[in-house]
C-alpha cells in the first residue's frame, strides 16, 4: 500500500500547476477530485451527493379516519396537527427553535382561521414563539406544495431546517361554496368548469377516455386489498403517530378517551360484485360511485426537511432527497388527468425518464382518473400505490400530500437500494396536477467523467 | 482507423521495427498505481471487422510502464515493469517459456527501456531509483549503472547516430547526455524549472535533442550550445508526458500529454503546432511514429484505448 501511495505521489507531481503557461495558479494549491461539469448527459447531475441537497429526515402522519363517523369526528383540527409536529421533534430530538418555518397545506377551512389554528397547533407541539407558521392552499396537492415550498426556501437559503405539513378535517369543514357566484362565470366555459363538482369531472374523464365501471371498481378493490395487506403487515406503524383524543357517543353524549392509530376506512373484504351494486352518484348512467371514489377523511401529516450538510452534521438518518417538483394546468372539466401531465414534467426536470422511477404514489381521487393516468403513462401496476391509495385509506385534501411523502419514503426505505427514485402526484380541483420526485438518501454514483461507449459512433448520448 | 481496448490503463506503445503492421502496448492496472500489468502484441489486420488483432499478451505481477522492440530479433521485446524488473519476451516462443529473462536490479519502478539501434544487442533501462542501467541481451546482470540524477529517471534513449551516446530525462529537472565510455555524464542540461518526463534525439541531426516537462513545454536543444534552447513549444495545457522525433522528417516531433491530447510539432517553423488530436478521454501517456510507414501514428492512454491512425485523419473515424 505504501508503494501505491508513493506512486500516486510521483504521478501527482506531474500535475503540479506551473507558471510558464497562461495559468497563474497558486503553486501550493493541492490537487483534489472535483465533480465533472462536462455534462454530456443528466446522469452527471442527478447522481452526486451534495451538501446543499434538500433531504427529508423524518415524515409522519396521523391515521386517516372517515369524516363525521370515524375516529377523529370529535377532534379539533389543531389537535390533529399538533401530534405530528410534536412527533417530528420527539423522534429526532431536534431543538424546535432551529426550525426556520412551518408550512401547512390545508384546503377547506377559512383561510385566516386555519392559519391561526396552525399557529396554535405549533404552540401545542412545543415550538417556541420564534418559529413562524403559514398555510398554503393548492387544493388537493396542498400538502405536497407545502413540502415543495419548504424545499425551495431551503434551496434559496432562507433557512436550513423547515417543516412541510398538511392538515384537513373534513368533519369540521365540509366542501361548500360560501356566498354567491359571480354571474360573469357564464361567459367563460373554463371558468364555469371550475365550479363543477369533482364527481362530475370524474364522469367526464371516464366518458371521454373510455374508462369502464368494471376497471374502476377493480382499481378500488385493489386499493382496499393492498391497504389491508399493508395494515395487517404493520407497514404503516413506521409512519403513523398515535393520537390521543376523545369520541362522543352521538346518542348519550358520553365522552370516551381513545388512541387512534389505525386507518379506519379500509375494507379488506371489498369485492367487485359488491361495488358493482352501488349506484352512480353524479350521473344517472355514470360510473363514479361512493365505492370507487376517494374517501372523505380527517387527518394530518408532517415532513421535516433540511440541508444535507445540516443533517450530516447532526447525524440524522436521511430518508430521502427532494429532487424536483412540478405543478401544471389542465382542462378544469377533466381535472383528474393532472398526474398524466405533471409526472412527466417533474421526472424530466429531474433528468430522469419514467422507466427510472421505482415507486409511485398517485392519489386516487377517483378510480376513473387514476386508471386513466396509469394507462396513459403506461406505468407498471406493481410500482403504483403498493400500500393502497385514497380509495381505501382516505383523502383528507390538504393532508394527502404529506401523507404520501411519509408512505412513499418509508416504503422506499423498506425496499432498499433497488428502489432509488419515487414519485408522488395528484390531480387538483379546478384543473391542475402536481408531482414531485424523491430519491433515496444513500444512492450515489461515483464521480466519473468517462463512460463505457458500446459502439464508437462519436455521438453524444444527447444526440439520439 | 483501428482502435483496440486494453483491459488495463495504457502506458506505452511502440511499432515493431521489422513489421509495418505490428505494434506492442504496455499497460498497467489501476493507472499503474496498484495491481497487475499486461504487455500486448497487436497486429493491424486487413479485415475491417477487427482492425487490431491481438497476437499475444503477457501478464505481469506489477504494471508495465514501457517497452522496447529488439533491433536484432523480430520477435524479441523488453518491458520495464513497476516492480523494478526488466523482462525480455520472445513472441516466437510459447507463452510458458516467457518471459525469457527477468532482470531484477532496480530497487524501484523501472520506467523506461530502449534498445540500441546501432549496437543491436544492448539496451538501457531507467528507474525511479534514480539510476540508469546498461544491459546486453546475453548477460544476466547489468554491465553498468549510471547514478547521477537526484530523482526518478523517467527515460533514457540512445542516440540514433552514435552507438555509445544516450540521453536521460529526470524528475530532478535536468536532462543529461552520457557516453558509456566515460565514467560520468558529459553534459547536464538544466533547462526546465519543473520535472523533465521525456527526451528524444533527432533522427537526422545528431546534435539535436528534445525534452518534455511538467512545465507544459517541449524544448529543443543543440548539444553544441545548450545554454539556450533552439526552440520552445508551448501548447499543451498540462505536463508533457512523452516526446518523439519523426523517423521521416527531421523537424517533426510528436508529443502526448496529461491534457489528453497528442500533438505534432515542426520545431523549425514559427507556428510550430502542426496538428492536435484529442481522441483520448484520459491522460495520453504513450505515442509512437512508425519507422516503416510514413505518417502512421499510434497512441495509448489511461482511457484503456490504443489508437492507430494516419496523420491528417481522425483517429476515431471508423
Describe the structure.
The complex is a heterodimer of chains A (464) and B (318). With 464 residues, chain A is of the alpha+beta class. Chain A has 14 helices and 12 strands. In chain A, strands 1, 2, 3, 4, 5, 8, 9, 10, 11 and 12 form a 10-stranded mixed beta sheet that branches. Chain B has a single domain, classed as YVTN repeat-like/Quinoprotein amine dehydrogenase (Methylamine Dehydrogenase, Chain H), CATH 2.130.10.10. Chain B is 0% helix and 50% strand. Chain B has strands spanning 3-5, 9-15, 22-28, 37-44, 52-60, 64-69, 76-81, 85-90, 101-104, 110-115, 122-127, 131-136, 144-147, 153-158, 165-170, 175-179, 185-189, 196-201, 208-213, 218-222, 231-233, 240-245, 252-257, 262-266, 273-277, 284-289, 296-301, 305-310. In chain B, strand 3 and strand 4 form a beta hairpin. The radius of gyration of chain B is 18 Å and the shape is globular. The A-B interface holds A 1, 3-4, 7-8, 10-11, 13-16, 18, 20-21, 23, 449-450, 456-458 and B 3, 31-34, 82, 109, 128, 152, 171, 193-195, 197, 214-217, 234, 237-239, 241, 258, 281-282, 303, 316, 318.
Q: Quick gist of this model?
A:
Chain A: This is acetyl-CoA C-acyltransferase. The complex is a heterodimer of chains A (464) and B (318). By secondary structure, chain A is α+β, with helices and mostly antiparallel strands.
Give the SSE layout:
The complex is a heterodimer of chains A (464) and B (318).
Chain A: H1 2-13, H2 43-47, E1 54-61, E2 65-66, H3 77-92, E3 101-105, H4 111-124, E4 133-136, H5 142-156, E5 161-169, H6 189-193, H7 198-209, H8 213-232, E6 243-248, E7 255-260, H9 272-276, E8 297-307, H10 308-314, E9 320-329, H11 338-349, E10 359-362, H12 367-376, H13 390-393, H14 400-415, E11 421-428, E12 432-439
Parallel strand pairs in A: 3-4, 3-5, 10-11
Antiparallel strand pairs in A: 1-8, 1-9, 2-8, 5-8, 6-7, 9-12, 11-12
Helix pairs in contact in A: 3-4, 5-14, 7-12, 8-12
Chain B: E1 3-5, E2 9-15, E3 22-28, E4 37-44, E5 52-60, E6 64-69, E7 76-81, E8 85-90, E9 101-104, E10 110-115, E11 122-127, E12 131-136, E13 144-147, E14 153-158, E15 165-170, E16 175-179, E17 185-189, E18 196-201, E19 208-213, E20 218-222, E21 231-233, E22 240-245, E23 252-257, E24 262-266, E25 273-277, E26 284-289, E27 296-301, E28 305-310
Antiparallel strand pairs in B: 1-28, 2-3, 3-4, 4-5, 6-7, 7-8, 8-9, 10-11, 11-12, 12-13, 14-15, 15-16, 16-17, 18-19, 19-20, 20-21, 22-23, 23-24, 24-25, 26-27, 27-28
Amino acid at each position: 500500500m505504501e508503494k501505491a501511495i508513493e506512486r500516486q505521489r510521483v504521478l501527482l507531481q506531474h500535475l503540479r500547476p506551473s507558471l510558464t503557461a497562461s495559468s497563474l495558479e497558486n503553486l501550493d494549491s493541492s490537487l483534489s477530485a472535483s465533480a465533472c461539469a462536462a455534462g454530456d448527459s443528466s446522469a452527471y447531475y442527478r447522481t452526486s451527493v451534495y451538501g446543499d441537497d434538500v433531504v427529508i429526515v423524518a415524515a409522519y402522519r396521523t391515521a386517516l379516519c372517515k369524516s363525521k363517523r370515524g375516529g377523529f369526528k370529535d377532534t379539533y383540527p389543531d389537535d390533529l396537527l399538533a401530534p405530528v409536529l410534536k412527533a417530528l421533534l420527539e423522534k429526532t430530538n431536534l431543538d424546535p427553535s432551529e426550525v426556520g418555518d412551518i408550512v401547512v397545506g390545508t384546503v377547506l377551512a377559512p383561510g385566516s382561521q386555519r392559519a391561526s389554528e396552525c399557529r396554535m397547533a405549533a404552540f401545542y407541539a412545543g415550538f417556541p414563539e420564534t418559529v413562524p407558521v403559514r398555510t398554503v392552499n393548492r387544493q388537493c396537492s396542498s400538502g405536497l406544495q407545502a413540502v415543495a415550498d419548504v424545499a425551495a426556501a431551503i434551496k434559496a437559503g432562507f433557512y436550513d431546517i423547515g417543516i412541510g405539513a398538511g392538515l384537513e378535517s373534513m368533519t369540521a369543514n365540509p366542501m361548500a361554496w360560501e356566498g354567491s357566484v359571480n354571474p360573469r362565470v357564464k361567459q367563460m366555459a373554463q371558468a364555469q368548469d371550475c365550479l363543477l363538482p369533482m364527481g362530475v369531472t370524474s364522469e367526464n374523464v371516464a366518458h371521454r377516455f373510455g374508462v369502464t365501471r368494471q376497471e374502476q371498481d377493480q382499481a378500488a378493490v385493489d386499493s382496499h386489498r393492498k391497504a389491508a395487506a399493508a395494515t395487517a403487515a404493520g407497514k404503516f406503524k413506521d409512519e403513523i403517530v398515535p393520537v390521543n383524543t376523545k369520541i362522543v357517543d352521538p346518542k348519550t353524549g358520553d365522552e370516551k378517551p381513545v388512541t387512534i392509530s389505525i386507518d379506519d376506512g379500509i375494507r379488506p373484504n371489498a369485492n367487485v360484485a359488491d361495488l358493482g351494486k352501488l349506484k352512480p352518484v353524479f350521473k344517472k348512467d355514470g360510473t363514479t360511485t361512493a365505492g370507487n371514489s376517494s374517501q372523505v377523511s380527517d387527518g394530518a401529516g408532517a415532513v421535516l426537511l433540511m440541508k444535507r450538510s445540516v443533517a450530516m452534521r447532526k447525524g440524522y438518518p436521511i430518508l430521502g432527497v427532494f429532487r424536483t417538483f412540478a405543478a401544471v394546468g389542465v382542462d378544469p372539466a377533466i381535472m383528474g388527468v393532472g398526474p398524466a401531465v405533471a409526472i412527466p414534467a417533474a421526472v424530466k426536470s429531474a433528468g430522469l425518464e419514467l422507466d427510472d422511477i421505482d415507486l409511485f404514489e398517485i392519489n386516487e381521487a377517483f378510480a376513473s382518473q387514476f386508471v386513466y393516468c396509469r394507462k396513459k403513462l403506461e406505468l407498471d401496476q406493481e410500482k403504483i400505490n403498493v400500500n393502497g391509495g385514497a380509495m381505501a385509506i382516505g383523502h383528507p385534501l390538504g393532508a394527502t400530500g404529506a401523507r404520501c411523502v411519509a408512505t412513499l419514503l418509508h416504503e422506499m426505505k423498506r425496499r432498499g437500494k433497488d428502489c432509488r427514485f419515487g414519485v408522488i402526484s395528484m390531480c387538483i380541483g379546478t384543473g391542475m396536477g402536481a408531482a414531485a420526485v424523491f430519491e433515496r438518501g444513500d444512492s450515489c454514483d461515483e464521480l466519473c467523467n468517462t463512460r463505457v461507449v458500446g459502439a464508437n459512433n462519436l455521438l453524444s448520448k444527447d444526440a439520439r | 482507423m483501428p482502435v483496440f481496448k486494453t483491459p488495463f490503463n495504457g502506458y506505452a506503445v511502440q511499432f515493431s521495427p521489422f513489421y509495418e503492421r505490428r505494434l506492442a502496448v504496455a499497460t498497467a492496472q489501476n493507472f499503474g498505481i496498484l495491481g497487475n500489468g499486461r504487455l500486448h502484441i497487436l497486429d493491424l489486420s486487413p479485415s475491417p471487422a477487427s482492425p487490431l488483432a491481438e497476437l499475444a499478451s503477457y501478464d505481469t505481477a506489477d504494471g508495465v510502464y514501457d517497452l522496447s522492440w529488439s533491433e536484432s530479433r523480430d520477435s524479441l521485446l523488453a518491458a520495464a515493469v513497476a516492480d523494478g524488473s526488466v523482462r525480455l519476451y520472445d513472441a516466437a516462443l510459447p507463452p510458458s517459456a516467457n518471459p525469457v529473462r527477468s532482470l531484477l536490479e532496480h530497487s524501484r519502478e523501472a520506467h523506461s527501456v530502449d534498445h540500441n539501434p546501432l549496437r543491436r544487442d544492448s539496451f538501457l533501462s531507467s528507474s525511479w531509483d534514480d539510476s540508469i542501467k546498461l544491459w546486453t541481451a546475453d548477460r544476466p546482470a547489468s554491465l553498468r549503472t549510471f547514478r547521477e540524477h537526484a530523482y526518478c529517471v523517467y527515460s533514457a534513449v540512445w542516440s540514433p547516430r552514435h552507438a555509445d551516446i544516450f540521453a536521460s530525462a529526470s524528475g530532478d529537472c535536468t536532462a543529461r547526455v552520457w557516453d558509456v565510455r566515460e565514467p560520468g555524464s558529459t553534459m547536464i542540461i538544466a533547462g526546465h524549472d519543473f520535472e523533465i518526463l521525456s527526451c528524444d534525439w533527432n533522427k537526422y541531426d545528431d546534435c539535436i535533442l528534445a525534452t518534455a516537462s511538467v512545465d507544459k513545454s517541449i524544448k529543443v536543444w543543440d548539444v553544441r550550445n545548450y545554454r539556450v534552447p533552439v526552440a520552445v513549444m508551448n501548447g499543451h495545457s498540462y505536463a508533457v508526458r512523452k516526446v518523439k522525433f519523426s523517423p521521416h522528417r527531421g523537424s517533426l516531433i510528436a508529443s502526448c500529454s496529461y491534457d489528453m491530447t497528442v500533438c505534432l510539432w515542426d520545431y523549425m517553423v514559427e507556428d510550430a503546432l502542426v496538428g492536435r488530436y484529442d481522441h483520448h478521454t484520459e491522460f495520453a501517456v504513450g505515442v509512437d511514429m512508425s519507422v516503416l510507414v510514413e505518417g502512421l501514428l499510434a497512441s495509448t492512454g489511461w482511457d484503456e484505448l490504443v489508437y492507430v491512425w494516419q496523420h491528417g485523419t481522425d483517429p476515431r473515424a471508423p
